Amino acid sequence: MNDLAKRMSRLSLVLPLALAAGGCQKVGQTAADAAIARATGVAIDRDGEQAGLHGGEAAPDARSGRQVALPADFPEDVYLPVHYQVNSVMDLQGVSMISLSVPGEVGALLADARETMRAAGWTQSMSAQHSADSAVLAFEKGEGGPRRSATLSFNRNNGDRHVIVGVQLQGGSR
How does pLDDT run across 104-148, given as a tens digit for each residue? Predict the structure, then answer.
Protein backbone atom coordinates (compact mmCIF):
# COMPACT_ATOMS: atom_id res chain seq x y z
CA MET A 1 0.00 0.00 0.00
CA ASN A 2 1.53 3.33 -1.01
CA ASP A 3 1.91 6.29 1.36
CA LEU A 4 -1.12 8.18 0.03
CA ALA A 5 -3.34 5.12 0.33
CA LYS A 6 -2.18 4.58 3.93
CA ARG A 7 -2.97 8.22 4.81
CA MET A 8 -6.40 8.03 3.20
CA SER A 9 -7.11 4.76 5.04
CA ARG A 10 -6.18 6.34 8.38
CA LEU A 11 -8.22 9.43 7.58
CA SER A 12 -11.26 7.32 6.69
CA LEU A 13 -11.09 5.80 10.17
CA VAL A 14 -10.33 8.99 12.08
CA LEU A 15 -12.49 11.58 10.33
CA PRO A 16 -15.90 10.11 11.19
CA LEU A 17 -14.87 9.84 14.84
CA ALA A 18 -13.67 13.46 14.94
CA LEU A 19 -16.82 14.72 13.23
CA ALA A 20 -19.11 12.66 15.43
CA ALA A 21 -17.38 13.71 18.64
CA GLY A 22 -17.37 17.39 17.74
CA GLY A 23 -20.71 17.54 15.97
CA CYS A 24 -22.88 15.93 18.61
CA GLN A 25 -21.92 17.02 22.08
CA LYS A 26 -24.36 14.76 23.93
CA VAL A 27 -23.18 11.63 22.08
CA GLY A 28 -19.58 12.78 22.52
CA GLN A 29 -20.14 13.22 26.25
CA THR A 30 -21.67 9.76 26.55
CA ALA A 31 -18.80 8.14 24.65
CA ALA A 32 -16.24 10.12 26.63
CA ASP A 33 -17.92 9.23 29.92
CA ALA A 34 -17.90 5.53 29.03
CA ALA A 35 -14.24 5.64 27.98
CA ILE A 36 -13.24 7.50 31.15
CA ALA A 37 -15.12 4.98 33.28
CA ARG A 38 -13.43 2.03 31.51
CA ALA A 39 -9.97 3.59 31.72
CA THR A 40 -10.11 4.90 35.29
CA GLY A 41 -12.80 2.87 37.01
CA VAL A 42 -14.51 6.16 37.95
CA ALA A 43 -18.07 6.58 36.69
CA ILE A 44 -19.24 10.03 35.59
CA ASP A 45 -22.66 11.19 36.80
CA ARG A 46 -24.22 14.02 34.78
CA ASP A 47 -27.09 15.92 36.38
CA GLY A 48 -28.51 18.42 33.89
CA GLU A 49 -25.58 20.67 32.92
CA GLN A 50 -23.36 19.82 35.88
CA ALA A 51 -20.95 16.91 35.96
CA GLY A 52 -19.64 15.20 39.05
CA LEU A 53 -17.65 12.12 39.98
CA HIS A 54 -19.35 9.47 42.08
CA GLY A 55 -18.16 9.85 45.64
CA GLY A 56 -18.94 13.56 45.97
CA GLU A 57 -15.78 14.99 44.39
CA ALA A 58 -16.61 17.75 41.89
CA ALA A 59 -15.46 17.01 38.36
CA PRO A 60 -13.44 19.73 36.67
CA ASP A 61 -15.84 21.35 34.22
CA ALA A 62 -15.66 24.36 31.91
CA ARG A 63 -19.06 25.56 33.16
CA SER A 64 -17.91 25.61 36.79
CA GLY A 65 -14.74 27.58 36.01
CA ARG A 66 -12.46 24.68 36.87
CA GLN A 67 -10.58 22.96 34.05
CA VAL A 68 -9.56 19.49 33.17
CA ALA A 69 -5.80 19.70 32.71
CA LEU A 70 -4.05 19.12 29.40
CA PRO A 71 -1.79 16.06 29.49
CA ALA A 72 1.67 16.89 30.84
CA ASP A 73 3.20 15.68 27.57
CA PHE A 74 0.89 17.73 25.30
CA PRO A 75 3.14 18.85 22.43
CA GLU A 76 4.02 22.54 22.23
CA ASP A 77 3.85 22.50 18.43
CA VAL A 78 0.09 21.75 18.30
CA TYR A 79 -2.47 24.56 17.98
CA LEU A 80 -4.41 25.66 21.04
CA PRO A 81 -6.77 28.62 20.64
CA VAL A 82 -6.61 31.64 22.94
CA HIS A 83 -8.95 31.53 25.98
CA TYR A 84 -9.73 27.82 25.68
CA GLN A 85 -11.11 25.61 28.42
CA VAL A 86 -10.51 21.87 28.38
CA ASN A 87 -13.74 19.86 28.40
CA SER A 88 -12.26 16.37 28.24
CA VAL A 89 -9.07 14.41 27.64
CA MET A 90 -8.81 10.79 26.46
CA ASP A 91 -5.77 8.66 25.67
CA LEU A 92 -6.56 5.53 23.69
CA GLN A 93 -3.54 3.38 22.81
CA GLY A 94 -1.38 6.11 21.30
CA VAL A 95 -4.23 8.37 20.18
CA SER A 96 -4.97 11.42 22.33
CA MET A 97 -8.33 13.14 21.99
CA ILE A 98 -8.93 16.52 23.59
CA SER A 99 -12.12 18.58 23.55
CA LEU A 100 -11.88 22.32 24.12
CA SER A 101 -14.49 25.06 24.44
CA VAL A 102 -13.54 28.49 23.13
CA PRO A 103 -15.36 31.73 22.34
CA GLY A 104 -15.11 32.85 18.74
CA GLU A 105 -16.10 32.07 15.18
CA VAL A 106 -15.28 28.84 13.34
CA GLY A 107 -13.80 30.69 10.33
CA ALA A 108 -11.39 32.77 12.41
CA LEU A 109 -10.34 29.78 14.54
CA LEU A 110 -9.82 27.69 11.38
CA ALA A 111 -7.56 30.35 9.82
CA ASP A 112 -5.61 30.78 13.07
CA ALA A 113 -5.11 27.01 13.43
CA ARG A 114 -3.95 26.63 9.82
CA GLU A 115 -1.40 29.45 10.19
CA THR A 116 -0.14 28.29 13.60
CA MET A 117 0.29 24.65 12.57
CA ARG A 118 2.09 25.53 9.32
CA ALA A 119 4.42 27.90 11.23
CA ALA A 120 5.22 25.01 13.61
CA GLY A 121 6.32 22.82 10.68
CA TRP A 122 3.16 20.77 10.14
CA THR A 123 2.01 19.92 6.61
CA GLN A 124 -1.71 20.23 5.98
CA SER A 125 -3.10 16.99 4.52
CA MET A 126 -6.83 17.76 4.52
CA SER A 127 -9.27 20.62 4.94
CA ALA A 128 -13.06 20.47 4.94
CA GLN A 129 -15.63 23.10 5.83
CA HIS A 130 -19.16 21.73 6.04
CA SER A 131 -20.88 24.99 6.98
CA ALA A 132 -20.06 28.31 8.62
CA ASP A 133 -20.22 26.45 11.95
CA SER A 134 -18.33 23.22 11.17
CA ALA A 135 -14.85 22.48 9.78
CA VAL A 136 -11.97 19.98 10.00
CA LEU A 137 -8.22 20.31 9.36
CA ALA A 138 -5.70 17.45 9.28
CA PHE A 139 -1.90 17.77 9.49
CA GLU A 140 1.14 15.52 9.39
CA LYS A 141 4.69 15.97 10.62
CA GLY A 142 7.87 13.91 10.86
CA GLU A 143 9.40 13.30 7.45
CA GLY A 144 12.82 12.51 8.94
CA GLY A 145 11.68 10.66 12.06
CA PRO A 146 8.58 9.35 13.80
CA ARG A 147 5.46 10.44 11.90
CA ARG A 148 2.69 12.23 13.76
CA SER A 149 -0.75 13.32 12.70
CA ALA A 150 -3.10 15.92 14.15
CA THR A 151 -6.76 16.42 13.30
CA LEU A 152 -8.52 19.57 14.45
CA SER A 153 -12.32 19.83 14.31
CA PHE A 154 -14.33 23.01 14.87
CA ASN A 155 -18.05 22.88 15.66
CA ARG A 156 -20.38 25.50 17.08
CA ASN A 157 -23.09 24.14 19.33
CA ASN A 158 -26.52 25.15 18.12
CA GLY A 159 -27.29 28.54 19.68
CA ASP A 160 -24.10 28.61 21.74
CA ARG A 161 -21.48 31.40 21.79
CA HIS A 162 -18.67 28.85 22.09
CA VAL A 163 -16.99 26.62 19.54
CA ILE A 164 -16.04 23.06 20.45
CA VAL A 165 -12.52 22.41 19.18
CA GLY A 166 -11.50 18.77 18.98
CA VAL A 167 -7.80 17.92 18.87
CA GLN A 168 -6.80 14.38 17.96
CA LEU A 169 -3.12 13.43 18.00
CA GLN A 170 -1.61 10.16 16.81
CA GLY A 171 1.82 8.60 16.53
CA GLY A 172 5.44 9.39 17.20
CA SER A 173 7.04 11.04 20.16
CA ARG A 174 5.70 14.30 21.38
Answer: 999 999 999 999 999 999 999 999 998 999 999 999 998 877 899
Q: Could you tell me which residue, 126 or 91, shows the higher pLDDT?
A: 126
Q: Which domain holds residue 29?
A: 3-170
- Counting the structural domains of the chain, the total is 1
Distances from the Cα of 23 to the Cα of 18, 43, 88, angstroms: 8, 24, 15
Which residues are bridge partners to 156 per DSSP? 163
Q: For residue range 13-54, what is the model confidence (pLDDT) as tens digits? A: 444 444 444 444 444 555 555 555 444 444 444 443 333 332
Question: What string of H, E and C letters represents the secondary structure of the chain?
Answer: CCHHHHHHHHHHHHHHHHHHHHHCHHHHHHHHHHHHHHHHCCCEEEECCEEEECCCCECCEHHHCECCCCCCCCCCCCCCCCCCEEEEEEEECCEEEEEEEEECCHHHHHHHHHHHHHHCCCEEEEEEEEECCEEEEEEEECCCCCCEEEEEEEEECCCCCEEEEEEEEECCCC
